[in-house]
């Protein structure tokens, strides 16, 4: 049994489970949860990639907090997440280049990316978005 709601003809409300030690990866079906506005899954045992579909298809998602897990892979482009206000992916194992369009999400106000393996520069609306990121993140490796 999967710990997350799955899309079907019968929609279910979303639940958040911070610190519940949910194992496994984030299913792309999370993007199909009707009226998903806030998703708090920080401090769990989540691994694998962050599904781009979650940012693309969850059209009402305002807050996505998935810090302190073991997510890996590239950071998906969040520029098409029209209503996303807060994205915290700190303390994971995300790696690669920062999407150049990351700060272009129109409503994004808080972005947490500290303690990952990311490289590159954040260009765009730096003066409008609070970014939590350490210098070692910019270099692409944790020390």
Describe it.
- The protein has helices spanning 52-57, 135-138; strands at residues 23-25, 38-40, 45-48, 63-65, 70-73, 86-88, 93-97, 110-112, 117-119, 130-132.
- By secondary structure, it is mainly beta.
- It has a single domain, classed as Ribonuclease Inhibitor (Leucine-rich repeat, LRR (right-handed beta-alpha superhelix), Alpha-Beta Horseshoe).
- The strands form two sheets. A five-stranded parallel beta sheet has the order 1-3-5-7-9. A five-stranded parallel beta sheet has the order 2-4-6-8-10, with no helix packed on it.
- The N and C termini lie far apart (38 Å).
- 30% of the residues are buried.
- Residues 1-15 and 135-143 have low confidence and may be disordered.
Helix content: under 10%
Treating each run of at least 4 consecutive H or I residues as one helix, how many helices?
A: 2
Number of domains: 1
Q: Flag low-confidence runs.
A: 1-15, 135-143
The CATH homologous superfamily is called Ribonuclease Inhibitor
| Span of the ends, CA to CA | 38 Å
Class from helix and strand fractions: mainly beta
Q: Could you name the CATH class?
A: Alpha Beta
Count the strands?
Answer: 10
H and E order = EEEHEEEEEEEH
| Rg (C-alpha, Å) | 14 Å
Shape: globular
Biggest β-sheet strands, sense, barrel = 5 strands, parallel
| CATH fold label | Leucine-rich repeat, LRR (right-handed beta-alpha superhelix)
The assigned CATH architecture is Alpha-Beta Horseshoe
Give the DSSP E fraction (strand runs of 2 or more residues): 15-25%
Mean pLDDT: 76
- For the largest beta sheet, what order do the strands appear in spatially? 1-3-5-7-9
